[in-house]
Amino acid sequence: MNTQHITLTREQADDFGRELDAIRERVIADLGQTDVDYIRRVIKAQRAMEIGGRALLFAGIFPPAWVAGTALLGISKILDNMEIGHNVMHGQYEWTGDPALRGRTFEWDTACPADQWRHSHNYSHHTFTNIVGMDRDIGYGILRMSPDQRWRPYYLGNPVYAFLLMVLFQYGVALHELETERIRSGEISLADKRDVLREIWHKTRRQLLKDYVAFPLLAGPMAPFVFTGNLTANLIRNVWSYAIIFCGHFPDGTQEFTVEETRNESRGQWYFRQVLGSANLTGGKLFHLLSGNLSHQIEHHLFPDVPARRYAEMAPHVREVCERYGIPYNAGPLPKQFATVVRKIVKLALPTRQRSEDATLVEAA
């Protein structure tokens, strides 16, 4: 955890915001056919890998075919969820006018209904990033991921809940809009979420039938190999998505905030909060592609509607601005960041409270 005390005056925060706005405006002005061609190539590759993977699983009695088919299907699901679905639903390609890239109507290959995701993620999480009590991505209603979350004996199971969330991540995301923590506390009842639950069930049932009934039945005697291949591909996607997302939000150095700290914040202060609450992952081009470019989590939180392929070129400029303002720019390799996430999960299972004093959103007058 960075122990430097960071403050910005209101004027400094406004200047910081204007510099980041300028970075965004330069990239927006440069968007064009290259960006369209890129996402269409990714979609084409994803579909080819899904078809190839499912075809190979039909010959799954031969171990090399099963392994190759499972790997291709797993990668196709990762691309569909992260580089395509997540980014398209953020409206990153709305400017193209292509109906296939329209974020408001896009549906993805996962258990979470897209409309619910657009609310819980695009609006709630990206507006109230790391504000305890408002950003439900802090713990997903299951985990204690901030010392500002009041400890209860329930949290002794933090490591177990984290493991289950990792292997069942698509279902954890699907239940996000259900607000299970409010149901457990008695604030609302399950009946209040009847419509939400119905949408979740319809989408989840469709996914289950597709992967574990329809395709295995089509394979005839090869059904067990198709079933286990689909199960493993979903597991690969779940674990990978969990690791990328948690390492972008909860490693050492990221910070949470209170409602009071963020009240009446300016755009510059909002930008400041996004940087402090996010972390990047270092790696090569293939790694960034498979992460949906969420390896550039800082840039994604600053510019969620900018095509994610542009984050790599924006990152050095964002980092330079942060360094001039004395704002830490959190970046590191996946193994290192994930290790600190695991440590945090275990530590916060215990009744400790350590309110960070590393930064304030604006210097007191």
From TrEMBL:
<feature type="domain" description="Fatty acid desaturase">
    <location>
        <begin position="65"/>
        <end position="331"/>
    </location>
</feature>
<keyword id="KW-0472">Membrane</keyword>
<dbReference type="GO" id="GO:0016717">
    <property type="term" value="F:oxidoreductase activity, acting on paired donors, with oxidation of a pair of donors resulting in the reduction of molecular oxygen to two molecules of water"/>
</dbReference>
<dbReference type="InterPro" id="IPR005804">
    <property type="entry name" value="FA_desaturase_dom"/>
</dbReference>
<dbReference type="GO" id="GO:0016020">
    <property type="term" value="C:membrane"/>
</dbReference>
<protein>
    <submittedName>
        <fullName>Fatty acid desaturase</fullName>
    </submittedName>
</protein>
<keyword id="KW-1133">Transmembrane helix</keyword>
<dbReference type="GO" id="GO:0006629">
    <property type="term" value="P:lipid metabolic process"/>
</dbReference>
<feature type="transmembrane region" description="Helical">
    <location>
        <begin position="55"/>
        <end position="75"/>
    </location>
</feature>
<feature type="transmembrane region" description="Helical">
    <location>
        <begin position="154"/>
        <end position="175"/>
    </location>
</feature>
<keyword id="KW-0812">Transmembrane</keyword>
<dbReference type="InterPro" id="IPR012171">
    <property type="entry name" value="Fatty_acid_desaturase"/>
</dbReference>
<dbReference type="Pfam" id="PF00487">
    <property type="entry name" value="FA_desaturase"/>
</dbReference>
